[in-house]
Every structure is written in C-alpha cells, then in structure tokens.
Design a protein that fits this description.
about 300 residues; mainly beta; three-stranded antiparallel β-sheet; elongated
Length: about 300
C-alpha cells in the first residue's frame, strides 16, 4: 500500500485549496484538462511518480461536513428525589422519597471561541419537595429523634436553577454534565409526629427559614431524535440554607439542618432552532447572495 511522503502531502493540500477555492480563476481554455504530478513512495521505500487530472478532481465527491449550530431547546422534566438532612447535631434518619419534582427547563447551546460546540447554559423553574424522616426504634416501636416534636416533615418549594452545561455528542447520543447554583422558596410544610403541635403541622414557625439556596449538579445522556430530545439524568443538590435559625433553641449551642437531595429524572425537550445543517437565516442569506452577488447588511 502506497504512502504519500511529506512533500506530496504539502503539495496535495495546496492542490486541494487551489482546486476548491480558485478553480474558477484558472485561465484555461474551455474543456481543457490539466495534469498534476505527485511523488509517491511504496512499502519498499521506492519513489514512484503518479498523476491526476483536473477532470478527475472535478469528479471527486466530498461529503459536506455537517454543521453544528448554536441552538435552543425548551423541555419538561419529571423526577423522583431521595432526601436527607445534614443535621448538626447529628440525628438518626432515613431517606425520604418524594415523587413530586417537575419543571420547565431552557437550554441554550453555543460554541466556545466560535468553534468548540461543547458548551451551553441552562435555567428553569421547578416545583418540588424535600424533607426528612427519622428512623423508628425497633424495641420502642417509635422514633427517638424529632424536630419540635415532628418525626417527619415535607417541604414544598419553587426552585430556579442556573447552570453551566458541558456536552459531547456521539451520533444521536448526547453525554452531558451540569453545574451551577439555585435559589428556592419554601411555601408549604407538612409535619407528622405524636408530639408535633397541631397548629404547626401545616404552618411555619417564626424561626423557620423559607428561603433556600445552594449548589446543584446533574449528569446523564440524551437521545437526539430531531427535533425532540429525550433526556435521562441523575442530579444532586446541596443546600446552604438551613431549615431554621441556628440559635432558635439556644444562643450558645447552634443547630442546623441543610437539605441534601439525590434525584433521577426524565425529560422531553423540543428544539426551537435547528441543531444541525444550515438554518433558515443562512439559506435566505445564500439566496440573496446568489441573486444580488453581494452580502446583505444585517
């Protein structure tokens, strides 16, 4: 099998450039053919001479590169979360599963430095729940831990995340990772427990914190069935906003409760603009240039 030597590679690159970009500027008679000579080497190292004609080059078809555009999607997500609290002092608890987590997500895909199509930004609005649940003592048949008499509590919130998006597309599969911040507002609480005050089973205490904020991460894959993308992801959320004021129980011994959630979700996203190929605006611009011969003002 013959291998093109370094000089031949350089010459071939120059030839391809001249043929693709400057073919129409060649001053040759109509119907004439031009022959190009190439130096090749075979497996034994012997140099051989080969040639190609411009007619042959004109007949070679090169598959056009599929362009990746800066495109936008809007989608819906639904997930199940497994919640725990980072209590200080520590408490014996188990995971609380909340199947009420869904929202609307906006994604804008873009290129870094104009040619690296691996980045984007994400933002959305979510409705969800988190909380805590303490373990039951097998001997006593009841929980030994509580917060203001409650052995279980579920908080309902509205959340707004903003995240950086990194993705790699392999054929019709997108592998991605998200990282960013979120802000949330807890507007509803439901408490359970024999010692919980009846009045506060569905009301907040004066020292409860309704505002929440923290870090949010996600990773997963999406199946791109243009113009629809089906997304499966695993997310993690760590709160910096405690459920209650640290000094509400004692001004000397502070107490904290930071939510920590792990979720699995499924999303259906719709492409608002084309992911691949030329957009309508690009096609219109090409049509104008073909008709008027110049690029129109934007």
């Amino acid at each position: 099998m013959r291998k093109i030597i370094c000089i031949s590679l350089i010459f071939t690159a120059m030839l391809s450039s001249a043929h693709s970009g400057g073919a129409r500027n060649r001053k040759t008679a109509p119907g004439s053919d031009t022959t190009f000579t190439l130096a090749l080497t075979d497996s034994s190292g012997a140099v051989q001479i080969d040639s190609v004609t411009s007619f042959f080059l004109d007949s070679v078809y090169k598959k056009p590169r599929l362009l990746t555009n800066d495109y936008t999607t809007v989608g819906f997500q639904y997930g199940v979360a497994m919640n725990q609290m980072m209590f200080n002092p520590a408490k014996s608890q188990k995971q609380l599963m909340t199947p009420v987590n869904f929202g609307l997500l906006y994604t804008r895909y873009g290129k870094l430095f104009g040619y690296m199509p691996y980045f984007g930004i994400r933002a959305g609005v979510f409705y969800g729940q988190d909380g805590y649940k303490f373990k039951t003592d097998l001997e006593e048949g009841d929980t030994q831990e509580s917060v203001d008499g409650a052995t279980k509590a579920t908080y309902t919130f509205i959340e707004v995340p903003a995240m950086a998006h990194l993705h790699v597309d392999v054929w019709r599969v997108k592998f991605f990772a998200d990282a960013g911040l979120y802000g949330a507002y807890r507007y509803k609480v439901e408490r359970e427990g024999k010692l919980a005050e009846e009045k506060y089973k569905d009301h907040f205490y004066s020292y409860d914190n309704k505002l929440d904020y923290g870090l949010k991460f996600a990773g997963g894959l999406a199946f791109m069935l243009d113009p629809v993308e089906i997304e499966v992801q695993v997310g993690y959320k760590y709160s910096w906003g405690s459920l209650y004021d640290a000094d509400y129980h004692s001004s000397y011994y502070y107490r904290y409760a930071y939510p920590s959630d792990l979720s699995i979700s499924l999303g259906l996203h719709f492409q608002l603009t084309k992911r691949n190929g030329k957009t309508r605006a690009q096609l219109r611009e090409e049509a104008r240039r073909a008709v008027y011969g110049t690029e129109t003002e934007k």
